[in-house]
Amino acid sequence: MEREEILQLLSSGRGGVDRWNEQRGALAEPPRLDGARLRGADLQGADLHGLRLFRACLAEACLCRANLEGANVSEADLTRADLSGARLASAKLFRCNFERARLCDADLSEAYLGEAELDGADLRGADLRGAKGLTAPQLRRAQFDGSTRLPDSLAAEFLHR
Q1: I need a surface site. Which of 46, 69, 87, 137 has the fewest CB within 10 A?
Q2: Sequence spans of domains, the chain
Q3: Does the predicted TM-score (pTM) go above 0.90?
Q4: Beta strands, E only, the chain
């Protein structure tokens, strides 16, 4: 499957995502979708695990319950994206812009979040255990609560927030 065909499926709504998910298993290796323009796309439940989405524009996209485990989404724009319940375990999220993104109940365990922009990001209920590159200043700019699971290195500092 060619890159443009994949992007057309992913940008064509729920039916396209379903067709992508069905055909995904037939691919020999994950496609590279670096720089993809999927602003505002409905990618709810999309299987994007292991994909390269380096510098992709996913601003305002709906990625609820999407699987991005092990994906390289470094330097992507996820401003105001909805990633509620998304699986981002072990994903590379270096310098991602999550400004005002919704990451409620997302699995970010073991993800690399170095220099990620989290201003106003909603991390309530998110699993950040084992996240790498995450700093206290990043967390201070995000929203989280007692249900957010923090990395051991930061949990004590924010325990009584």
Answers
A1: 137
A2: 1-161
A3: yes
A4: none
